[in-house]
Amino acid sequence: MMAGISKSNMKKNLGGPLAGRVALVTGGSRGIGRAVALRLAELGAAVAICGRAAEKLRESADMLQRLGGKVLWQAADVTRADEVGKLISATEAMLGTIGILVNNAGIGLFGPAHEKSEEEWDRVLSTNLKSVFLVSRAVVPAMIGQGGGDIINISSLAGKNTFAGGGVYCASKWGVQGLSGCMAEDLRDYGIRVSVICPGSVATEFSGRGKKDAAKALRAEDVTHAVEADEDERS
Asked: Looking at the domain assignment, is residue 187 inside a domain?
């Protein structure tokens, strides 16, 4: 387990619509997660990011640090409740109570479901679905205590559609859709809003199915517009 808090924490955030709020982005070391973390920081939030690759996390933290806000990075496996607990505790101790959670961590393994192993099933469902449950469960009590918050789950068009070779991946993303909808109903009376974003193919390092036409794929930055619009509605 490695963690770091940037030296920029010694500076005051210069302001913005999310000034004073604390955001946690899982899978924030690259791709969509990194782009979302950067946009939240630009909007004034103090940002915590996690992932499994410490080197990539440092790179993302350096980029966030240059924006002048508060940043925490921590290597964590969000499929494990003990590591999630340590991540939340570190974030709250160094940045404050989490008011924005972006559940972005995810992987993709594709091919006919009957050819996949139990280990592959467990890996995809744990990363894409169980992590949403574990991290959300860990932050909700404090959100309730502060009278509200935002949970944004990054799903996929695969959470609404089926395709050949997508059995395991689609199962995980359809699960995210169902979990998100039920959480929204359970938490609305506490002032906690649960949203789900379903991007199509995005030009990132994510291991998707087949080759993508980069000219037709979304950029990671495009997904941040949906996250920002979600926060604008809150404002």
From this structure: yes
Domain that holds residue 27: 19-224
Q: How many domains does the chain have?
A: 1
The reported pTM is: 0.84
Q: Phi/psi class of residue 68: alpha, beta or left (left: φ > 0; alpha: ψ in -120 to 50)?
A: left
**Are 220 and 35 a contacting pair, CB within 8 Å?**
yes
* Residue with tokens 């966030």, as numbered in its chain: 64
Per-residue pLDDT in tens (0 to 9) along the chain, 235 residues: 445 544 344 344 457 999 999 999 999 999 999 999 999 999 999 999 999 999 999 999 999 999 998 999 999 999 999 999 999 999 999 999 999 999 999 999 999 999 999 999 999 999 999 999 999 999 999 999 999 999 999 999 999 999 999 999 999 999 999 999 999 999 999 999 999 999 865 444 544 545 555 554 445 555 565 565 565 555 5
The tokens of 186 are what? 């359970």
For the question of residue 190 being annotated catalytic, the response is no
In this structure, what CATH number is given to the domain that contains residue 117?
3.40.50.720
Asked whether residue 230 is assigned to any structural domain, the reply reads: no
Residues 6+ away with beta carbon under 8 Å from 164? 112
Q: CA 89, 90, 92 angle in degrees (round to 5)? A: 65
Please, which residues have CB within 8 angstroms of residue 187's CB and are 6 or more apart in sequence?
Answer: 140, 143, 151, 193, 194
Q: Is residue 114 part of a domain?
A: yes
What token pair was written down for 37? 């973390």
Which listed residue (159, 169, 187, 194) is catalytic? 169
